[in-house]
Prior knowledge:
Residues 370-428 form the PucR C-terminal helix-turn-helix domain. By secondary structure, the chain is of the alpha+beta class. The protein has 18 helices and seven strands.
Amino acid sequence: MPMTPSSLPAAPTQQWGAVPPPAAAVPPLPRRSPDDPGQDAMRLWASLPRDLAIRFTPRVNPLARAILREVQRAVPEYRRPLEGGFGRVITQGVRQSVLQCLESVGATVPAAVPVDAWAAVFRNLGKIEFQEGRSLDCLQTAYRVGGQVAWQHISDFARATGMSTEALCTGAEAVFAYVNEISALSIEGYTSARARAAGTRVRRRRRLVELLLSDPSPAPGAVAAQAETAEWTLPAEVTVVALEPRPGRAPDIPPDLHPEVLTVLDGDEPCLVTGDPRRDLRDLAAVFPGRRMVVGPTVRTADASRSLVWAQRTLRLVQRGILPDAQVTRCTDHLSTLWLLADEFLIRELCARSLEPLAGLTPKQRARLGETLLVWLQTRGGSAPEIGKRLGVHPQTVRYRMRQIVDLFGARLDNPDDRLDLEIALRAEALLSS
């Protein structure tokens, strides 16, 4: 958050009267260019007389200690001994701030002041905050507090040395600009670290999906280790959702799914993997509008590849028109069809053998007798009126067709195994011809 004048200690008064609030003395600062860190603050420091820096030098160490003390007082997360890596970084940050500003006072060529190392310190502070699992609130508070302390010390210095009103206002403006600039640098570092972490996490989770869905299944220990690396809670069971591929199209924008859902949205086999389908798969149609999806069966995590296989098979049946064209299809709603068409070579062989008596008929005759025979088998030898009602034809038509069927199939109609083969074949033929 930017520092406001009202949050600062009041400026001291001298014989020249009250010092006006710094923010009222200058217009808003332009945004800092990423390629030229410190431009505004360094320009302001450079406009001050060089002798001010010389006279302020004895106050550098007291100022640095005061900033550290007040920052630790204001930010509970920083209330720990200033030792180890954390201590070195925060101490370096404070000293770097004070020295950088002091060295810029009265510089004749502000652009020549080296800023790479200075900028790296504050970008690194942003990275550390991300790595520590904190938001930027702590660091931004520390910067505001540091600015307040610096302003108080500059005020005291002005009172002791008789610094002009103009110089004091410039110094105040430089403090505010500097706080804004180091805040921006830390935001850059934080954002960069977060982006890298997100990219690493995506790669690790993609590798986890590859392991889960590989066939044969990998060793459980390998999956568990990769799940831990990818920060994914390994469930006892998983459900895989197959998404319709979109060759040549831009990948989907990452959807708003629960963090525990694994996603692979590109390539030839896009999919989702979840350990909690009730939580994660309720609004799939809204998450991926206009894209076909098939929810595979829930299986043991070690059998995740099977869930994907059956989801993909179901998706192909939807694409062929054998199953209804729905945006979201669930395998468990079509298990008999999936079983029936699990091996199309075998089912076509069964159709050819069992329905061979119909081979000599015209397509229309074959269709009529086939549907009549199927209803007769389904109703376990139902009456002509019952079958006629199911087919929407006159009972006499049913009797005529059944006489033809008896002539064609003969004793096979009395054999339970043959009747089962006939029903399976007729059902499969109806599906494959749809």
